[in-house]
């Protein structure tokens, strides 16, 4: 079943239905009205759900910020019950918390869950990038390289190649690391990232 992003698209589809199915005009009208009403209900329902999720995220996030003992547990429950962007943001925050206390296994668990929930390419790339870094901390170098393949989009190239270079260097592949850092530089990243990549290349040359 097609999913329509605007009411205009839906109206166009209903008109096409009428043109192609003149004999079923009456049924088409009923279906068109029902679909339009359903679409409006779905929009309202989705908006309400996201508003509630936003409020719940802010509450759980504040508990973490205030370093309350219940904060981590509340945020974990939030991630489990919200398979949307807010759930992904919460998982990212939890992963950061666990990484800070060097609980990399739990950090990986949160990021793996976020990986399955992220629907937008940029958000998924961010999750994959952080997951690869956590996998490096656990010496899961092959897993990290596979995860980095999920980092998409030109804007992520330099960061992706930077982390890839780190993985390859950790595996003893200095040539591969040099190629990765060079690709990162070729993507014309920010000045700060350019400086970092050049420094890593210089260290490999020395």
TrEMBL record:
<feature type="transmembrane region" description="Helical">
    <location>
        <begin position="24"/>
        <end position="42"/>
    </location>
</feature>
<dbReference type="Pfam" id="PF09976">
    <property type="entry name" value="TPR_21"/>
</dbReference>
<comment type="similarity">
    <text>Belongs to the YfgM family.</text>
</comment>
<feature type="domain" description="Ancillary SecYEG translocon subunit/Cell division coordinator CpoB TPR">
    <location>
        <begin position="15"/>
        <end position="205"/>
    </location>
</feature>
<keyword id="KW-0472">Membrane</keyword>
<dbReference type="InterPro" id="IPR011990">
    <property type="entry name" value="TPR-like_helical_dom_sf"/>
</dbReference>
<dbReference type="InterPro" id="IPR018704">
    <property type="entry name" value="SecYEG/CpoB_TPR"/>
</dbReference>
<keyword id="KW-1133">Transmembrane helix</keyword>
<keyword id="KW-0143">Chaperone</keyword>
<protein>
    <recommendedName>
        <fullName>Ancillary SecYEG translocon subunit</fullName>
    </recommendedName>
</protein>
<keyword id="KW-1003">Cell membrane</keyword>
<dbReference type="InterPro" id="IPR026039">
    <property type="entry name" value="YfgM"/>
</dbReference>
<keyword id="KW-0812">Transmembrane</keyword>
């Amino acid at each position: 079943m097609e999913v329509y992003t605007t009411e205009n698209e839906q109206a166009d589809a209903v008109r096409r239905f009428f043109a192609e199915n003149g004999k079923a005009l009456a049924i088409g009208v009923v279906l068109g009205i029902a679909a339009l009403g359903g679409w409006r209900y779905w929009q309202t329902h989705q908006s309400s759900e996201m508003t509630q999720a936003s409020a719940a995220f802010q509450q759980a996030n504040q508990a973490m910020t205030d370093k309350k003992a219940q904060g981590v547990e509340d945020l974990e429950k939030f991630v489990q019950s919200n398979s949307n962007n807010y759930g992904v943001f919460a998982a990212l925050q939890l992963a950061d918390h666990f990484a800070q206390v060097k609980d990399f296994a739990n950090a990986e668990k949160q990021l793996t869950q976020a990986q399955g929930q992220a629907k937008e390419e940029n958000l998924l790339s961010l999750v994959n990038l952080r997951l690869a870094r956590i996998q490096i901390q656990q010496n899961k170098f092959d897993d990290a390289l596979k995860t980095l393949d999920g980092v998409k989009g030109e804007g992520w190239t330099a960061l992706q190649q930077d982390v890839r270079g780190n993985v390859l260097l950790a595996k003893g592949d200095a040539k591969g690391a040099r190629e990765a850092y060079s690709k990162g530089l070729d993507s014309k990243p920010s000045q700060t990232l350019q400086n970092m990549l050049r420094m890593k290349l210089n260290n490999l040359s020395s």
